[in-house]
Amino acid sequence: MPSSPTTPIVRIPLVEVFATVPDPRDPRGVRHALPVVLTVAAAAVLAGAKTLVAVDEGWQRWTGMRFPD
Question: Keywords assigned by UniProt (predicted)?
């Protein structure tokens, strides 16, 4: 039985995908790049975080830094 043709899978790092999201924040208050914030939030949710507090706690463990209040 011949195999069906397949297309190669293109893998793009999540942070690069999030880099295409427009940043609606006022540039004067930006401390962290939006793609990084979104990537960390996505990773935290995939790891089981259910609240923003849990996302912040994960960020602190991974980076040693706090999200600004």
Answer: Membrane, Transmembrane, Transmembrane helix
Residue 59 maps to a domain: yes
Residues 38-68 have pLDDT tens digits of: 998 999 899 999 999 998 888 888 777 666 5
Residue 14 tokens, joined: 């999540």
Residue with tokens 């790891």: 47
Q: How many domains does the chain have?
A: 1
Token code pair at residue 11: 């893998």
Q: Can you list the pairs that 15-19 forms with residues at least 24 positions away whose Cβ atoms lie under 8 Å?
A: 15/39, 18/42
Q: Look up the domain containing 54 and give its range.
A: 31-69
Beta-carbon contacts of residue 7 (< 8 Å; ≥ 6 apart): none
